[in-house]
Amino acid sequence: MSTATTTTTHQKSKYNYEPSFEAAVIFAMLYTVVFVTSAFQCLRYRAWVWIIMVVAAGMESAGYIIRSISTKHVDSKNLYVLQFCLIVLAPVLMAAACYVIFGRIVYHVVPSVSRTTKLLWIPPRYITPIFVVCDIIALLLQLYGAVKITSVTVNTVNPDSVLSKGKKVAEIGVAVQLVCFGLFAVIAVRFNFTSRRFKEDFLRRIATAAAQERGVEMTAIGEGRKGDKYYPIRISND
To answer: N or C: which end of the chain has fewer CB within 10 A?
Structure first.
């Protein structure tokens, strides 16, 4: 009786392996901590541009929570589809957040006259749109593949072909995402070195902004004047 029950449950399982409840719980806890921390910092500093990453972390947290439940109900298609989509698609939003933030960093660090194609190998003003569009393409491909894979039922005509097609489309989406993020990583690392020549100008602009908030006229880096009095302007190199 026990063997028959095990065989029946295994046949109904939506997984091709034995899912780990413990691993799902651990990742659910970790992503929940990341989600709560990111949401708190986003609200505290009003960094609304970071909301994309908060949503992505929330998707991962919810995905692994649902996955932990799904490991106890391996025959539930709804739970399987929901956790699969949340976990697979969240990294696409994480990558999009990185692209947007990098574009902001380039805008604030690099003077307008120096924002050339030579600096990043891609026109700086288009770096965010280009990578975000590639990310959307990867998202759509992975979403289509996920829908194809999870739509297979016992009544599906030629299920092996449908599964194979869905898997290939999803893999193409992952490949597009990896290539784009790989190129982005190379550009970001290169920018880490090329941007050092803008440090002095960046610090000057930061000091000027700080002085203006205090109503102080800047006379030099690290020094301001208000009337006949001079005030030190503290500039952090951190």
So the answer is: C
